[in-house]
Amino acid sequence: MPQIQQLAQYEGSTITLQGWVANKRSSGKVAFLVLRDGSGYAQCVAELQTVGEDAFEQLKRLTLESAVALTGKVVKDQKQAGGYELQVTSLHVYHIAEEYPLGKKEHGVDFLMNKRHLWLRSSRPWAIMRIRNQVQFSIHNFFQQRGFVQMDAPILTGNACEGTTTLFETEFYKKDNTAYLSQSGQLYGEAMAMAMGKIYTFGPTFRAERSLTPRHLSEFWMIEPEMAFCDLDMDMDLIEEFVRTLVQDVWNNCRTELETLERATTLFENIHKPFPRITYDHAVRLIRGEEDLDGRNAIALLENDLATAQQQLDEKQTDVAKCEALVSGGTLKKGEINYYQSKIDKLKAEIKNWKTTCAISHNG
């Protein structure tokens, strides 16, 4: 069965797409549906004269996330996502969904987290997961092509591997036996490299560090290569080639997803430039602000970032006050009240996260 991401291969042909209704609008005798099938999004246009009255009435009754099969001709249209649309000639309805709780309106973080199984169907999580999939595939492909052997380290370990106490503790069969969720597969990887020469581990690791910053995660997947007979320069060469390859693969294969996330392209344009290499002592001097780099000072940049963050916090608090005044004013309709209340909840959650992050950073 053809998929939306393959529409370019079927230009001018009549095909059937299976998927879910992501958006719908109608204008007189024409209905416009945005269909998603997991591989992408496509606009599908159905005219009353072409599909007939019965089918057109079915189209009008469709709700968001209804499951359908649409048959029609693939036509090139650069204005549409993906550059193609489907001119519908017939349809089959598998299921008309109940009222879908996620709409175009802005939802708060708490609301979306409580509906995460449905939120995954939205365009932003969809794009993130597809990019993640490409990165994982590229990681394996990179190392396998270079003679590395994938090895798996245990997730349950008897002790910390990095001399820290931030461990998730578990009861291991008996109350007096304790095991911990792994922080790293490095120690196992070093032993494996002595047997295989070049290995890599790639799996979940856990850090029990209480923080809400994007740089602190309780669970994440970590890639750890280990190589015998490899010096520092060889190590840096591999790292540079690894990063460049992954970024280029994402750029080549996830252009639509990157556009969905509105990502800047500067990184992709500069990825082929040689990576700068400096000594540890030089890096310490830069971090301390004792030396400038390209006319920029690390301490000055941090102070500027802090001032910007404080300004953004003040703006959010001002927005909260304005929205609360509108909601309590008694002049808004129900839909408008829901919109502004959702915006208030989102802003308050962002303010709370910012304050929590600052408090944790300040307390170390």
Task: Kindly describe this structure.
This protein has 364 residues and is an alpha+beta fold. It has 12 helices and 11 strands. It folds into 3 domains: 4-95, OB fold (Dihydrolipoamide Acetyltransferase, E2P) (Beta Barrel), CATH 2.40.50.140; 124-286, Bira Bifunctional Protein, Domain 2 (BirA Bifunctional Protein, domain 2), CATH 3.30.930.10; 298-363, Helix Hairpins, CATH 1.10.287. The N and C termini lie far apart (55 Å). The mean pLDDT is 89.
Query: What string, H for helix and E for strand, traces the elements in order?
Result: EEEHHEEHHHEEEEHEEHHHHHH
The tally of strands reads: 11
**Helix count?**
12
- What value does the average pLDDT take? 89
Main traits of this protein?
364 residues, 22% strand, alpha+beta, three-stranded mixed β-sheet, OB fold (Dihydrolipoamide Acetyltransferase, E2P), single chain, five-stranded mixed β-barrel, 11 strands, 12 helices, 3 domains, BirA Bifunctional Protein, domain 2, Helix Hairpins
Topology overview:
Blueprint: E1 14-27, E2 30-36, E3 41-47, H1 48-51, H2 53-61, E4 67-76, E5 84-95, H3 109-114, H4 116-119, H5 123-145, E6 149-150, E7 156-157, E8 169-171, E9 178-181, H6 186-196, E10 198-206, E11 219-227, H7 232-253, H8 255-260, H9 266-270, H10 280-287, H11 298-328, H12 334-363
Parallel strand pairs: 3-5, 6-10
Antiparallel strand pairs: 1-2, 1-4, 2-3, 4-5, 7-9, 8-9, 10-11
Helix pairs in contact: 5-7, 11-12
